[in-house]
Prior knowledge:
Layout: E1 2-12, E2 15-25
Antiparallel strand pairs: 1-2
Amino acid sequence: xxxxxxxxxxxxxxxxKKISHGVIFQPETQFKGGSVKWFDDSKLIKPEYxx
Length: 51
């Protein structure tokens, strides 16, 4: 999937003189269903004795 972006980059006397463009590439979604393994945040918490 791509998105085209038009940007006015130069104006003179309120009129657009030059327009630039860019393209944003986005990969296709590869998720096919099923369960998601969630990360356990408690593994990041430091024990009391390390404070």
